[in-house]
Amino acid sequence: MTAISSTAGGPTARFRGMLADRDGQLRIVLVLIVATIVYGAFYNDLRQGALRPLFEALPMPSVNVLIVMFYYAILALGLNIVVGFAGLLDLGYVAFYVFGAYTTAFLASPLHGISIPWWFVVIAAVGVAALAGVLLGAPTLRLRGDYLAIVTLGFGEIMPVLARNLDNIDLSAFGGPKDFNLTGGNIGVNPIDAPVLPIPGPWGDELVFSNRNPVAALYLILALMLLVFAICVRLRDSRLGRAWMAIREDETAAASMGIDTVSTKLLAFGLGASFSGFTGAFFGAYSTAIFPESFNFAVSISILIMIILGGMGSLRGVVLGAFVIRYVNDALLPYLGGFVDEPVRAVGAALPEIPILKDRIEAFTLTSYNYLLYGVILAVMMIKRPEGLLPVAARKAELHGEGVATEATFGTSGEVAQAATDFEAAEGHLATPESRPDGTDGTDGTDRGDRA
Amino acid sequence: MNVAAWLARNSRLLIVLIAIAAVLALFGTSVPIWGGCTAALDRCADVVAIGVFQGMIVALVALGYTLVYGILQLINFANGSVFMLGSVAALLGVEIFGLTSDSPAASVILAFAVILPVTMAITAGLNAGIERVAYRPLRRAPTLATLISAIGMDFILQNVGQIIIGPSPVSLPSLLPNDVILAEPVVIKVSHLFVTGITLPLLLGLMWFVRTTRQGKAMRATAQDREAAGLMGIDVNRTISLTFLLAGALAGGAGVIVALYNGSAWWQYGFSYGLLAFTAAVFGGIGNLLGAAVGGIFLGILISLNAFYVDPRWQEVVVFGILVLVLIFRPTGLFAEKQSERA
């Protein structure tokens, strides 16, 4: 995290500083880029050709699944700004996704007869979502953490309801039609114009980035995700990023250090929302149709799970979390279901007549158990490994002991990582409650002693 | 930055403007909000009465939120799902006893004399078990960690409900007779009496328990200051478990009532009723028992009026609108919180 601060070396040095490989991150990114490009380009050939047995035997993600993994990674990176950096629990992140998707639907579909190229629409979508984030954040960011969570949850619930219900607005009082259809109601908006570039090639006269041409859409979303990732790295290392983390650690202390906590938190909300709007614009254009049902509470929570699984505040971790969750949900569970569903249903059919239970076992589908998995991940991560799978060293240290946290404040990330490792080695098994250095056993030690 | 700061400083003004815009939008979508009520004033009393009965059920769930929040400062997200599992248990009970809409009244009453307490016992145990597994290890952790764990539990229970009864709503046979007992001044049916007959004793019983018994006193003490209560010899862990038991029992009872009163069970009821109840708890000042009960009844009346005069489609918007406005302008609730009332 030190490379960027040296501005003296001129633009070339700065650029080299930007590219400086911190903990091998650049290598991972390069591998990701190359692997995605190769996999996307040869997916159909591989699937039909030499590697066909492999594709049939293993849960290989399709190109569409990869696209979903990438745009959820953007969503997770955006929510990470709000939850991971600034420490504000937002349970209604899907609301801004709605703003992005519906802005796209309004500006690039036959619904209102407007057809603006996606490349401009996406800017509008980002702007609208950011504005919505600031407007929601302005009155609510003063609330306590759990109240803020509920308010954002409510906002996330209201937006799809509005999308569903605003299909027959009576505008006769304003001289408009009596049943103005703003959002398309329950049936959503279909079709939406896909992003198009006027480049002729083997794909036809113009290059379309939609689910009809998933490989192009995959490359587009890969580029967008890398852009967002780079923005997030720069934000994290910026003055603003440090201000967010200071607020997360101790709002009062941050304020007394001269940080304007209200506008800093608002910026986190607005920036996070703009990423969500960005993804919403891509989602609408890529799938060329949107429905209010696609935007529910479970989407907000699944993004939260990605962040918690990967590690709050850790950019690599968040992307990993998004990949894992979407991969499990869209490729692994259907694959495993192919093995499990039929035998379980057969057992159900063989069972004697038990009301309800028999029907349920006969209709068993593994993929409908994803909520159960989400819930278990949330609870288990919170109890066993709150810092996530790929934690930021400082956060890990701070969650596990004060002695290391002091060093985290002053040391560089490398030193802290080392300190954390040493500490872990010394303590043996960090995650177990017994070894918490402050002497508590996780179950409230004082309460136990008071029984007498 | 400056724009952001200005927005933040004038946030209340903004909220008022947004609220006005929302009201205008509502007027635009469905005109006869006030006009309708005066024109159909005779129905108005009935609509309010229906709302009161609905609100009693909401109040039962709201008490669960308020009890737990009072003692742990935790929004027990899973409470709504525990309630939902209560209605699932009622559905299973009806299946097990083989009740149909033709069953004689005596057998229905007998069956529910078993189903109701058994369900309440199960949900009470479930709620206390959740506390043991998912909240107690996090008691020293930041509040948001426990909240996230609670959301996880909520998801698990929702999925369990979905596994048991399937993804779509399941109808129960109509077991409550539709006879009208009273036509004037408001229509009251047997089902309404049933709701009142179970809800009111539960509400009053809880109030009595918390206010007068020794255990209730321990709960109030723990709510005020956990450490000091521990120093006074109160077994804090047991008291917290007891709170979760009570909250779970109330939620389960409410689940049984809803299953019978609405004639259906659905895994998504947990979320919708849960948020309704949470809003009621916040409205009455979270932690305040009487406030939660009054808030529940108020919200019941409100959603009933909304369903009759506006459109049930807007229920979520109305409820959340109220929640947001109360949280922003009066986060302590509409009834100023009295320490002695807290549980």
Amount of beta strand of chain B = under 5%
| Lateral arrangement of strands in the main beta sheet of chain A | 1-2
Query: What is the highest CATH level, the class of the largest domain in chain A?
Result: Mainly Alpha
Instruction: Calculate the terminal CA-CA distance of chain B, rounded to whole Å.
Output: 43 Å
As a percent range, the share of helical residues of chain A equals 55-70%
CATH architecture of the largest domain in chain A: Orthogonal Bundle
Reported by name, the CATH topology of the largest domain in chain A is: ABC transporter involved in vitamin B12 uptake, BtuC
Largest sheet of chain B: 2 strands, antiparallel
Number of strands of chain B: 4
Radius of gyration of chain B: 21 Å
Low-confidence stretches of chain A: 1-8, 402-452
Query: In terms of per-residue confidence, which ranges of chain B show pLDDT below 50 for 5 or more consecutive residues?
Result: 27-36, 338-343
Helix-strand pattern of chain A: HHHHHEEHHEEHHHHHHHHHHHH
Radius of gyration of chain A: 24 Å
Structural class category of chain B: mainly alpha
Query: Averaging pLDDT over every residue of chain A, what do you get?
Result: 80
Largest interface: A-B, 75 and 80 residues
- Overall geometry of chain B comes to globular
Annotation, overall tally of beta strands of chain A: 4
- CA-CA gap between termini of chain A: 52 Å
